[in-house]
Design goal:
By secondary structure, this protein is α/β, with parallel strands linked by helices. The chain is built from 13 helices and 5 strands. A 5-stranded mixed sheet has the order 1-5-3-4-2.
Length: 280
């Protein structure tokens, strides 16, 4: 009679854990931090946050020059063996400017949607964020969350509320970053603007002299026009050296909805004297 084989004790499978301390096990679970060569790091696809050479960047470069990179960037390794930068584009740029060849990085193993959510969450903590950056960041995050069907464990907020059709509510995104659900929708609307008009919305925040500026509310109304109408409006702005008021933008949108917005109508609306332009 064949000898019955006893089942293998499970303790042998985890023998390392059996003789390790809790502190050692906790340490082993932490994401690893590597010195990754700058040349092996690729930017995040369609990264919505700009890397601007402003005062903050100058200070960051000086800090890297004196003390190195204090906070590691966040990357994930791709199938090609290279690294995709999730958070740390400004730190990478500062390293390039100072001749630093490697960037300290926390290497995480996440999916595409998890990487998008983490990218937006980490970058939205910046002090100065332009409307265009918020617009595309909110859109990317909302789309990624909806594809997932639920919130990722990488986020700290509670489980997402859902709309009737299973869509994550814009209110959830707004709660995380201090904007109302309506404001989140307004920002996402800005992604429908042609680049030249979207830049004017950013100018309204940067307050750069000599550059045309469009406030948020008229910009949202303009976003409902198709690209052809927006291009025509852009020509009028360049000719007149003035951008539309909220009232003018509303009237252009109404004319567009009625399929009556022509180049002549845009010119007629833009030629009108605004109340603050009338001689007192």
């Amino acid at each position: 009679m064949a000898k019955k084989q006893l089942p293998r004790p499970q303790a042998w499978d985890g023998i390392n854990e059996l003789f390790s301390t809790q502190a050692e096990r906790d340490e082993a679970k932490k994401p690893r931090i590597d010195e990754v060569p700058i040349d092996d790091i690729d930017p995040f696809p369609n990264h919505p946050f700009q890397v601007r050479f402003d005062t903050d960047m100058y200070n960051l470069i000086e800090s890297v020059r004196k003390r190195g990179v204090i906070t590691p960037a966040i990357v994930r390794q791709t199938k090609s063996g290279r690294y995709q930068l999730i958070s740390g584009h400004r730190r990478k740029f500062a390293c390039e400017q100072t001749g630093v060849s490697a960037l300290p990085c926390t290497v995480v193993d996440v999916s595409d949607d998890e990487a998008t959510i983490l990218m937006v969450e980490s970058n939205c903590q910046r002090t100065n964020i332009l409307p265009s950056e918020k617009a595309f960041a909110y859109k990317m995050r909302l789309e990624a969350m909806n594809r997932q069907g639920q919130r990722t464990d990488l986020t700290s907020a509670p489980v997402a509320q859902k709309l009737e059709k299973g869509k994550v509510s814009a209110a959830v995104v707004g709660e995380e970053f201090g904007d109302s659900k309506d404001q989140v929708r307004r920002y996402i609307r800005l992604t429908n603007l042609v680049p030249e008009l979207l830049e004017m919305v950013d100018n309204s925040v940067l307050h750069e002299r000599g550059k045309p500026q469009i406030a948020m509310r008229p910009a949202v109304e303009i976003s409902y026009l198709d690209q052809a109408a927006q291009k025509t409006l852009l020509q009028e702005i360049n000719i007149l050296g003035a951008t539309p008021s909220h009232d003018q933008a509303i009237r252009m949108r109404k004319a567009f909805d009625r399929k009556r917005l022509t180049a002549e109508v845009i010119s007629e609306i833009m030629d009108e004297q605004k109340p603050n332009q009338r001689e007192k």
